[in-house]
Specification:
The complex is a heterodimer.
Chain A lengths: L2 H12 L5 E11 L5 E11 L3 E5 L6 H7 L8 E6 L2 E2 L7 H5 L2 E4 L11 H12 L4 H14 L15 H13 L5 E5 L7 H16 L3 E5 L3 H7 L2 E6 L2 E6 L1 H6 L4 H10 L2
Parallel strand pairs in A: 3-8, 3-9, 6-7, 7-8
Antiparallel strand pairs in A: 1-2, 1-4, 4-5, 9-10
Helix pairs in contact in A: 4-5, 4-6, 5-6, 6-7
Chain B lengths: L7 H5 L1 H34 L3 H15 L3 H11 L9 H26 L3 H10 L3 H16 L1 H14 L11 H12 L2 H30 L8
The chains are: A alpha/beta, B mainly alpha.
Bound molecules: adenosine-5'-diphosphate (ADP) and magnesium ion (MG).
Chain lengths: 262, 224
């Protein structure tokens, strides 16, 4: 059994008590141009939970999840990751970021590094792993996401779906406590969406705590523990997939669903 | 006009010319190596978002790019001893060439840095790298690949610039040519040969640049 599996299994047993990993309280943010993008958003994500974040384009979803690893500063409220506060200009934000994996819409692999090195650079330089250990762990991750045979290639030689799976492996290599996904399948050709969702699904099954911005309804229905709905900088729903899709209360949510469900 | 060409001056003094060419090549490579380090640091300052650092780098670039190289060389070789900094001709040549190349490469590398998508930087930060490590490990390699041909062009100019250092009696290829010319008056043969030797040096530098590209920027072939 690999150390990663041990850790993930450790997480799934801890799920029974479900300590909070992300605690965001009344987060408010205004962009430099005066745009009030987050108007006091609160969210608690417990260990092992899979939370799907939905909402119309421009509602602040990306901004919100990017506050969780300090990529977006915010002005009011508070955010804690596993008990560590994320506040603006705080020293040591790098240490928190190691614990928070992030997968971007545009993959953002490092073009000058092979697939293997994209994955090992973090563990070697930040976690102090030896090259051999890091490569072994990376190969195991690549095995899991189904692209071990591409390890020596450069990102530019891979399809979008393959690149996104590498990006997931790269984030996992840091052994994060939580994974953030920002529309991970939106930039993919339709035939590649599934391979990425399958990886996310098995990650969820392994007990990883996940926050996913996605409009993949099938994934949300089957994998999410909770779905939250953000519109115009306000979080107006936080409920089970069943309630969300089959019994929506809010008008704006109904409108949104009518748009994405066909 | 009856000028009879006599290239024996070249064969008889080939050792002198070769020694000069060797210094020219060494000066070029050292100036480019040190200058590139300056250029990378300069581009870091220019893109840091820190007004003081940006101001320092910008002032440096402005001063160097808008004054003659000969004046820079004279200032360092003849001027600095006044404040107690006395350099040999070769040291002054390397320092001034590196400072000069550093200013041009600062702007070239900066363009490369700015060509890197913001998402690359964010991916580096998200893993937990600090800003400086993101710059070193994630931004600079593809940035250099993106501006490589402009950089090589500037390197070649730097090679040609080295001929100016003959003015402070650094014994480069041009100095060797001037020296032979003064003693033999075979200007046609000597400067014709000098031109060919400079061409050969530039080709050597281009070949090295090609090797570096193949070794470090292989990935650039596959960029989307
Ligand atoms: N850097 C920025 N400066 C100003 N406005 C921004 C900036 N980034 C995003 N916005 C605006 O904030 C709103 C929310 O953006 P975002 O969080 O990306 O929304 P979503 O991910 O839900 O589509 C959008 O209207 C967008 O135009
Ligand atoms: Mg978004």
């Amino acid at each position: 059994m690999t150390s990663l599996q041990t850790e993930l299994n450790g997480k799934s047993t801890a799920t029974l008590e479900k300590p909070p990993i992300i605690v965001a309280k009344n987060v408010e943010k205004t962009y430099g141009n005066g745009f009030h993008v987050l108007k006091g958003v609160s969210l608690t994500v417990n260990k092992g939970e899979v939370v799907v974040l939905m909402g119309p384009s421009g509602s602040g979803k990306s901004t919100f999840i990017r506050t969780f690893n300090g990529l977006e500063p915010y002005q009011k409220g508070s955010i804690e990751i596993d008990g560590t506060p994320i506040s603006n200009g705080k020293k040591g934000i790098e240490l928190v970021r190691r614990e928070v994996g992030m997968v971007f819409q545009q993959f953002n692999l490092f073009p000058h590094l092979t697939v293997l090195k994209n994955i090992t650079i973090g563990p070697i330089k930040l976690r102090g792993l030896s090259k051999a250990d890091a490569e072994q762990a990376a190969m195991e991750l690549l095995e899991k996401v189904g692209i071990a045979h591409q390890a020596k290639k450069y990102p530019g030689q891979l399809s979008g779906g393959q690149q996104q799976r590498v990006a997931i492996a790269r984030a996992l290599a840091m052994k994060p406590k939580v994974m953030l996904f920002d529309e991970p399948t939106s930039a993919l050709d339709p035939e590649m969406v599934r391979e990425v969702l399958d990886v996310m699904r098995s990650l969820a099954e392994s007990g990883m705590t996940m926050v996913c911005v996605t409009h993949e309804v099938g994934f949300a229905r089957e994998v999410a523990d909770r779905i939250i709905f953000l519109t115009e900088g306000n979080l107006i729903a936080d409920t089970t997939p069943d309630q969300f899709f089959n019994n929506p209360k809010e008008e704006r949510l109904k409108t949104f669903l009518s748009q994405i469900l066909h | 006009m009856h000028y009879s060409f006599d290239f024996s001056v070249i064969w008889d003094n080939f050792g002198v010319l070769l020694a000069g060419a060797w210094l020219t090549l060494r000066l070029s490579l050292m100036a480019v190596a040190f200058g590139l380090v300056i250029g990378i640091v300069g581009s870091l300052f220019r893109t840091s978002g820190n007004r003081l650092l940006n101001g320092i780098a910008l002032a440096y670039v402005e001063v160097i790019r808008n004054t003659p190289y000969l004046i820079q060389l004279f200032f360092i070789f003849f001027g600095l001893p006044a404040v107690g900094l006395k350099l040999s001709a070769e040291q002054a040549a390397i320092v001034s060439l590196a400072i000069n190349f550093g200013a041009y490469s600062t702007e070239i590398v900066r363009a490369g840095v700015e060509s890197i998508p913001k998402g690359q930087v964010e991916a580096g930060l998200a893993i937990g790298f600090n800003k400086l490590d993101v710059f070193r490990h994630i931004v600079i390699p593809p940035a250099l690949a993106n501006i490589y041909s402009s950089l090589v062009g500037q390197v070649i100019l730097a090679v040609l610039f080295t001929s100016v250092v003959s003015q402070i009696a650094a014994e480069d290829l041009t100095y060797a040519g001037n020296y032979l010319d003064a003693r033999t008056f075979r200007s046609f043969e000597i400067y014709f040969t000098l031109a060919i030797l400079y061409l050969a040096i530039v080709w050597i530098v281009k070949a090295l640049a090609y090797v570096v590209e193949a070794r470090f920027f292989e990935f650039a072939k596959y960029r989307q």
